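Quick one: structure tokens for this chain, please?
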Amino acid sequence: MAIMVKDLPVDERPRERLLFSGAAALSNTELLAVLLRTGTREKSVLHIAEEVLAHYKDRGLEAIVHMPPAELAAVKGVGKAKAATVLAAVELGRRLSMKAAEHIVVVHDPEDAAHFALPRFRFEQREHFAVMLLDTKNHILGMPDVSVGSLQASVVHPREVFRAAIDYAAAAMILFHNHPSGDPTPSREDIAVTQRLVKAGKIMDIPVLDHIILGRECFLSLKEKGMLS
């Protein structure tokens, strides 16, 4: 017979623990259980939450960000209404993380730039190449996508990169792209593309200040690694 949440001591129930100790005190399973709210006759809500997370263990928790509603709803014990609640909470969290980055309006170092960009690209499943466009005082003018590629690569042409810079009347730029694998280690092609764009920037008088490669929770600055030229 399954142990239901109501059979647990009050201070061990996820919702009560959240209210008493805060959301940060809960595990991923418990947080998901709070969103799912109820289980079934056969399974507790904690058991269903565990099954949802186990279903996506190969892709990690971030797989939920891109999960089609029908796929989540198909998990026994979830259904359409609970799937909608979970995916709405995930999207709200994603938007809050992006909002938190908006206070960075001036770039002083690669960390500032990466913290601005990470919330936007952290969970992307394809490689995106973007340019952060700066004015003469390193205020961020914008960060448009230049190219969206496959799971492993994006195709970048200098013409598209500098067209964006001219459209924004940028004085300088920082290149960005994400590695969906989560590992920001640059490939030989990454370095070659960077060097080609640095040379083009000198000709256009719009310097490329850095190329930052984004993982899921980390980043790598080619400038800091001495790979910019």
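The longest strand covers residues 128-134.
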